Amino acid sequence: MSGISDSFQRPISYLRVSVTDRCNLRCVYCMPPGGVSLVPRSEILTYEEIATVVRVAAEMGISKVRISGGEPLARAGLAGLVRMVSQIEGIDDVSLTTNGVLLKEQAFELAEAGLRRVNISLDSLKRQRFKEITGYDKLSEVLEGIDEARRADLSPVKINVVVMRGINDDELLDFALLSREGWNVRFIELMPLVNGGGKHREFVPASEIRDRISSLGELLPCSPPLGNGPASYYQLQGAKGTIGFITPVSEHFCFKCNRLRLAADGKLLPCLLADEEVDLRPVLRRDASPEEIGKLILQAVASKPQGHRVNQGIVPQKRSMTQVGG
Ligand code: SAM
Prior knowledge:
The protein is of the alpha/beta class. It is built from ten helices and 14 strands. β1 and β2 form a beta hairpin. α1 runs parallel beside α2 and α1 packs across α9. The longest helix has 13 residues. The chain is globular and about 55 Å long. The model has no long low-confidence stretch (mean pLDDT 91). The site of S-adenosylmethionine has 22 residues, from β5, β7 and α10.
């Protein structure tokens, strides 16, 4: 296995796969107010086509795959994809990002198929507010999904909270306190996106989130540092769980970005927050050789920008988060 690096010498080892652009929630910051136009089902990659891409990518040095969406658990038979991908030589970590609504029914089957860990998006612990943010009265389903993921030994279970001023920032301490009970909570800065609903006035910088949580006690940096992604992790004294911060807006972490993203329609994106893309679907549908697919993967890697420019107000125009996988 060779290993690939981009033009800025960043090793690329992680593929994020969106398996659907459909979602069973309508989070205010993610979906454009009028909804998104959905890709016809015939244009969504089949699980076999996704596995083909992963197989070629693994040959090139990709070792980690995260499955996302839309809502990945809303696509039938996801455990089948997890099984295929986790059996590919070179793939040593298969994880999932989900809103958790359907996790209770699927956690054990996914774990048995080879899923290692799961990130669950949860922006409020209050039933009515959860409904206002997501459009659906599904908080109890998500909480049950979190419990079931733990019972199924998916580890770690991380809870992703997008922080919005005036909407859920009064729950920062409630979420942080759950780390004492073993929750791994990550606070994500709201990204103001053209195609999503994230508004500038609701943005709370991670530095402020950190300061407010520090009122609970000193935040001790985790040692050794956790994870291979963009979060920085801390712990409250004596807590079993962790508190993470993801700062796409205030503190660039592009310099260590190791990712490519495969959208549900087969476009390979070198950056979440840029419009560059390479279309893999036509070659996949004419049964091209692994070499041809590999060439297109290299083309996407070569076009990976040095960094996104969200904090200069330059945001992707073509796709919303739900279409790229967040
Ligand atoms: N449906 C799954 C879920 O809810 O986790 C996966 C897809 S969702 C698009 C992936 C992640 O993107 C979620 O954690 C979501 O909170 C995050 N996200 C979407 N829009 C965002 C925005 N404007 N700012 C920050 N995070 C965002």
